[in-house]
Amino acid sequence: MTSDRFREGLLASKTVILPRLNRLSPSLESTALKIMEESGELAQAIGKFRGLSGERQRLEEEEAMQMVARELVDVAQTAVTMMFVLEEQYGIDLEAILKEHITKLRCKGYCD
Description:
Layout: H1 3-7, H2 28-50, H3 61-90, H4 94-107
Helix pairs in contact: 2-3
């Protein structure tokens, strides 16, 4: 994916399918804490690439970006888990929330 393809409008969105995790009993609170933990690991991976972790040696770009991508997917998986918690434990209609979100983004001019 190049920025040129984005500018041309060929890749207007990305669909990510992540599973509902079995063998877990997440609560709203435990899932929120897990999102924070995973976000910290993502920040740490970026810090290692940028040399911000206090270490003398920085990671090579390819290795660092692989680490960043893995941590980002962990954040996304945990966010999806929280969506399941909201739907199943609190009856939240996430389809409606997602539609509102897209409308908000369009109104702000972030997407077509």
